[in-house]
Amino acid sequence: MIDHIIQYGTKVQKNIIYEQPLNERVRTFLRLEHLFQITRHHMQNDNEFDSRTSVSGLLNIVDLLSRSDIRADLIKELDRHATTLNALSSNPNVDQDRLRTVLDNILTLLESLKKTSYQPGLNIKQDEFIISIKQRSVIPGGSCNFDLPNYHYWLHKSFNARTSDMEHWQNDLLLIYDSLKLALHMIRSSATPVLEHAVAGFFQKPIESSMACQLIRVSISSERQYYPEISGGKHRFTIRFLEQPSTKSRPVQIQEDVDFELHCCIL
After folding, report:
1. Who's near 45: CB < 8 A, 6+ residues apart?
2. Do 159 and 140 sit in the same domain of this protein?
3. pLDDT tens digit sequence for 101-146
4. What are phi and psi of 202, to 5 degrees?
5. How many other CB atoms are there within 10 angstroms of residue 32's CB atom?
6. Is residue 113 situated within a structural domain?
7. I need a surface site. Which of 66, 92, 133, 186 has the fewest CB within 10 A?
8. Beta strands 258-265 and 252-253: pairing type?
């Protein structure tokens, strides 16, 4: 979920954006983005438990990278965006300076991603200290101070010393992060917001075969007492608005009509 702010006259309304990927590539991109955001947030804080969360996040990022060829997926995605932007270079209605800036950024990232010498996550895979943490982390509470006294010692080093180590561990991951941010920005920016109406909390829409919709985004006010549950495939997607007054009870579909903002990202 991603927050954004909409201003109506003098009233500022905070909206929550709920996202649903419609293919495996974007699903993996969003999970990886989620891990990077958590990790980089906690890296900024001088606290033992923030450092623990950062280390766990870095290990999870490398683990996810090893499970799928995200580097190849990013190359395909950015190549596709470069082709799309090149097709716009002769359009007089397009800001050519901005287009060239974005295209140059994509091409620079692609050049680095395609280097055979680039191996994301190698800094962590070759580090005995952080690998020892990974081996113990599969055990609940396995990184306790008596299990890993060297980790306990490291967590009590100065903030600058810990930050220096973490920056080294993440250094060869930053190209993936920058490429990921750009690819997702291009996908999210490809949608034209449309106001839709869900009758009795239910909405369904077919996906045109000529439109390669990759991501559904639903924006509703944070003041609403319900949330959307989105599901979809190649041919259609469905949105059900649910409420859960108590954590002890199951969510149920609301019976009132809902107006909401829909983004169907087709790039």
Report:
1. none
2. yes
3. 999 999 999 999 999 999 999 999 999 999 999 999 889 999 999 9
4. -130, 135
5. 23
6. yes
7. 92
8. unpaired
Distance CA 27, CA 33 (A): 10
Task: Tell whether 227 and 181 lie within a shared domain.
Answer: no
Domain of 216, CATH number, reads: 2.60.440.10
pLDDT in tens, 49-96: 999 999 999 999 999 999 889 999 999 999 998 988 888 877 777 778
- Helices 159-170, 48-67: axis angle to 10 degrees equals 10
How many CB atoms neighbour CB 43 within 10 A? Answer: 19
Domain hosting residue 145, numbered range: 26-185
Q: What is the CATH number of the domain that holds 152?
A: 1.10.3900.10
Q: Are 172 and 229 in contact (CB under 8 A)?
A: no
In the chain, the number of structural domains is: 2
Which one of 122, 157, 185 terminates a domain?
A: 185
Q: Report residue 236: phi and psi, to 5°.
A: -160, 165
Q: Do the beta carbons of residue 216 and residue 264 sit within 8 Å? A: yes
What would the DSSP string read from start to end of 84-142?
A: HHHHTTT-TTS-HHHHHHHHHHHHHHHHHHT-TT--TTHHHHT-HHHHHHHHHHTSTTT
Question: Measured between alpha carbons, how far is 106 from 108 in angstroms, rounded to an integer?
Answer: 5
Residue 150 lies in a domain: yes
Enumerate the β-bridge partners of residue 76.
Answer: none
What is the number of residues in the chain? 267
To the question of pTM greater than 0.85 for the whole model, the response is yes
Listing DSSP states for 44-75 in one string gives TS-SHHHHHHHHHHHHHHHHHHHHS-HHHHHH
